Amino acid sequence: MLLIQQLVNSIMLGSVYVTVAVAFTLTIGILNFLNFTIPTLFMLAGMMGWALSYYGLPFGLSGPMPWPLALAVGVVLAILASLLVERFTFRYLKTRYGDSTEHAIPLVSSLGFLLILENLVRIGYGTEERRFVGPDADLTLNVGGLFIRVPQLISLFVTVLIVIFLTMLIRRTRIGRGLRAIAENPDAANILGVDTKRVVPVVFMLTGLLCGLAGALFAVNYGEVSPLMGEDIGTKAIAGMVIGGLGSIWGAVIGGLIVGVLELMTVHFFGADTVQVVVWGALLLTLIAYPSGLLGHNAIGKGKL
Amino acid sequence: MLEVEALNVTYGRTRAVQSLDMTVGDNEVVTVLGSNGAGKTSLLRALQGAVGTSGGRIVFDGKNITAKSPAARVKAGMVLVPEGRQIFVSMTVNENLLMGAYLRRDDNIERDLTEIYDRFPNLAERRHMSAKTLSGGEQQMLAIGRALVGRPRLIMLDEPSLGLSPLYVDRLFNLLGELNKDGIAILLVEQNTSMALDIASRGYVLELGRKVLEDRAEALATNTALTEAYLGGSDGDGSARVLDEQP
Questions:
Q1: Closest listed residue to residue B198, CA positions, set B181, B219, B218, B174
Q2: Which of A11, A29, B189, B203 has the most CB atoms at less than 10 Å from its CB?
């Protein structure tokens, strides 16, 4: 029974990894770009949600906000930060100093953004963990002896909705076709009138939205935020994405859940220190058996969505 | 319809197209001939805005579009069917056609798709299948169909017959004739010189980025010095190939 309870918990934890892994895989699938600012966007939503509900706006512009409003503003800030990253790392540096196949410049500059934003938050609010007072995180349902915390259930539900929404957006809409065209053949897309400058920011908005929601849900569920909260989640989400297959949204879902399960099972059987070894060991083993991940395609960088 | 004045296209230090003047009249079929590296592909890509120009003017319908984006040019009514077809193999046939209507906001897209499917029954059968299941000839028809969904008045084609079976080469040129009858002007870059000159009213010959000859198509077809020097002969059976343009 304890084991099944752990399984339930790990699916809940995995759903946080899923959302962040989907953000990673979306940028890789469409733009062939490993966006290192993703963990910071996650942290930004959580930390700003905390700061706004604890202090309110800076310079005394408002008193402490109610937590749902504070988190909503945190999510919006994550989206804005993501657009800033698009404008100054991806678009500007790439078009000015690289050709369309240049990967290193946006990658390194996004790493720069990660460190700058993380440290700005540390300068503003310190490094220690903060307690986020949201809804009653201990509100639980008892389903046949299994305890399911209500906020976690809601998070899982939101995660599922986001993934379905994204899949529909990419499969069924005009903007989704534009994104897939850019993913497969940017040159042909351009010739047909797909304006990269208008479509690429959509990817970054979605990235900000996904990471922001994940950060907000994390704050609500675990009741703790810190400027470093993105790092652990970020590395595990990357592992989940690679296990599932680069560029595959459903691969990211499966990979994120696998990492969640592996993590809590490892904690259960071997203790917390072993988690990274098991997760990354599983990643290497997966790649040996399935070089493009569980659901990935062979081609790297072309038409992966 | 299209006027090009003193056009230059430069990649780094390579001059792909040099001070080129050319025109395509309303509802005219014009062909551009020349061996590999003559600058034909660069010319078409510059006309569509996929590469920048380093001098000269491109005027479409009396409007200077030299600095306009490819999207603006598609909206204005010109579309390029690129070399190698460049269809989206990760999409279905129908989605590929919808990409041709990417910039359209009107309600008649479905009607135009039906028209395309009437024209290409092979595509209609496979509309919901992945475009990579199509044969080379069908892929070329899809690439042209995709361009047509954008309702162009000028269609530019880059080596459309490359790699096609003789049957599809015939179909292709019949199709181009029909499109021209429907009022679409055509700018055709082709390696199949005899068939290109057959369908065109005028032709330009490029060499190393420069125009070396322009004339009526019949005159070019009978210009023996030209056919021997650049075009590898024209024996009129549709199978003539320029030697150094073999894939």
A1: B218
A2: A29
CA nearest to B11, candidates B49, B50, B54, B48: B54
Helices A249-269 and A275-289: angle between axes, nearest 10 degrees: 140
Residue that is written with structure tokens 């007072």 in the block? A133
pLDDT of A268 above 60: yes
Number of domains in chain B: 1
Provide the token pair at A155. Answer: 């998070």
pLDDT value at B73 more than 50: yes
- The CATH code of the domain that includes B207 is 3.40.50.300
Give B247's pLDDT tier (boundaries 50, 70, 90).
very low
When scoring A192, A195, A300 by the number of chain B Cβ atoms within 10 A, the one with the most, hence best to mutate, is A192
Under a CB-based contact definition with an 8 Å cutoff, are residues B65 and B58 in contact? Answer: yes
CB contact under 8 A, B74 and A181: no
State how far the alpha carbon of A218 is from the alpha carbons of A42, A75, B178, in Å. Answer: 9, 12, 62
pTM of the entire structure? 0.86
Out of A128-132, A209-213, B76-80, least confident range: A128-132
pLDDT of residue B232: 53
Write out chain A residues lying below 8 Å of B71, CB-based: 193-195
Cα–Cα distance measured from residue A93 to residue A113, given in angstroms and rounded to the nearest whole number: 13
Q: What are phi and psi of B27, to 5 degrees?
A: 60, 25
> What is the pLDDT at residue B244?
41
Mind giving me the DSSP string for A107-147? HHHHHHHHHHHHHHHHHHH-SS-EE---S-TT-EEEETTEE
pLDDT of residue B84 exceeding 60, the answer is yes
B86: which 2 tokens?
């460049």
Smallest CA-to-CA distance from B103 within B151, B61, B153 is with B151
Q: Which residues of B touch A192 (CB under 8 A)?
A: 70, 74, 79, 99-100, 102, 146, 150
* Prediction ipTM score: 0.87
Q: Which of B47, B83, B96, B99 to mutate to test the interface with A (most CBs of A within 10 A)?
A: B99
| Spatial distance between the Cα atoms of A73 and B104, rounded to a whole number of angstroms | 35
Give the pLDDT confidence score for residue B242 in this predicted structure.
Answer: 41
| Confidence band, pLDDT 50/70/90 cuts, at residue A302 | very low
Q: Region B41-59: what's the mean pLDDT?
A: 93
Give A185's contacts in chain B (Cβ within 8 Å): 86, 88
Alpha-carbon gap, residue B41 to B28, rounded angstroms: 20
- Contact at CB, B50 and A190, closer than 8 angstroms: yes
Q: What range does the domain containing B197 cover?
A: 2-245
Beta bridge partners of B8: B55
Cβ count within 10 A of residue A134: 20
pLDDT at A151: 83
Listed as own residue / partner, the contacts of B119-125 with beta carbons closer than 8 Å and 24 or more positions apart are B119/B145, B119/B175, B120/B145, B123/B93, B123/B97
Of A178, A180, A191, the CB nearest to B70: A191
φ, ψ dihedrals at A56, nearest 5°: 90, -170
Q: Is the per-residue pLDDT at B231 higher than 70?
A: no
